[in-house]
Amino acid sequence: DVKVTQSSRYLVKRTGEKVFLECVQDMDHENMFWYRQDPGLGLRLIYFSYDVKMKEKGDIPEGYSVSREKKERFSLILESASTNQTSMYLCASSPGTGVSNQPQHFGDGTRLSIL
Amino acid sequence: AQKITQTQPGMFVQEKEAVTLDCTYDTSDQSYGLFWYKQPSSGEMIFLIYQGSYDEQNATEGRYSLNFQKARKSANLVISASQLGDSAMYFCAMRDQMDSSYKLIFGSGTRLLVRP
């Protein structure tokens, strides 16, 4: 079974802090994704990566950055946390090209509160 | 731009009955894939079913089936014989198969509550 592990289920931080959310997958997937989920808005893509050290902006990248130094690990960074970044954050991974019907596999999510 | 619309914020269904969750999509692409995910209150996203735009048959996976109407751009999820454990959020998502990033566009979700 594919396993995507997010480092924290719940996290509370203060405004202005630098926050790191970690995600690790064990299936050698090329693609990794970070989403945030807010009520009534579904999941929105923040950043994604299709290879080590490669990253692309998603739909809402402002206030975030990412790091992918190893294939299995994809980190989301809130450079200076603000209260409007309080949300549920979901990491996902999927195989690379040639497997178009493969779903993305998700971690359990991190509920982040910024006070 | 691609877009997914789920018009039912919440739905109720009686246990053991069937329920249809609506999903319409907008795309100018010819090759795309449609996915349904389930999210229980615990938060994890569980993949349920996939339909490719060129698939001639409607996808089925156990009690889940997808009513795919390409001309109407709809991909409704049908859950037969509902169980209490089906109570969850359900998300419809679309992927452009020509986009090498394989990113998904999600709808806003439908919360399903199964009544005993």
Keywords:
heterodimer; A: 115 residues; mainly beta; 7-stranded mixed β-sheet; 4-stranded antiparallel β-sheet; 52% strand; B: 116 residues; globular
How does this model look, in words?
The complex is a heterodimer of chains A (115) and B (116). Helix content of chain A is 0%, strand content 52%. With 115 residues, chain A is an all-beta fold. In chain A, a hairpin with a 3-residue loop joins strand 4 and strand 5. The termini of chain A are far apart. The model of chain A has no long low-confidence stretch (mean pLDDT 93). Chain B has strands at 3-5, 10-14, 19-21, 24-26, 32-39, 46-52, 60-61, 64-69, 74-79, 88-96, 105-106, 110-115. The chains are: A mainly beta (115), B mainly beta (116).
Topology:
The complex is a heterodimer of chains A (115) and B (116).
Chain A: E1 4-6, E2 10-13, E3 19-25, E4 31-38, E5 42-49, E6 56-57, E7 64-70, E8 73-78, E9 87-94, E10 105-106, E11 110-114
Parallel strand pairs in A: 2-11
Antiparallel strand pairs in A: 1-3, 3-8, 4-5, 4-9, 5-6, 7-8, 9-10, 9-11
Chain B: E1 3-5, E2 10-14, E3 19-21, E4 24-26, E5 32-39, E6 46-52, E7 60-61, E8 64-69, E9 74-79, E10 88-96, E11 105-106, E12 110-115
Parallel strand pairs in B: 2-12
Antiparallel strand pairs in B: 1-4, 3-9, 5-6, 5-10, 7-8, 8-9, 10-11, 10-12
What is the molecular shape of chain B? globular
Specify the biggest β-sheet of chain B.
6 strands, mixed
Q: Mean pLDDT of chain A, as a whole number?
A: 93
Report the β-strand fraction of chain A as a percent range.
over 45%
Which class do the helix and strand fractions of chain B yield? mainly beta
Anisotropy-based shape of chain A = globular
What would you say about this model in short?
The complex is a heterodimer of chains A (115) and B (116). With 115 residues, chain A is mainly beta.
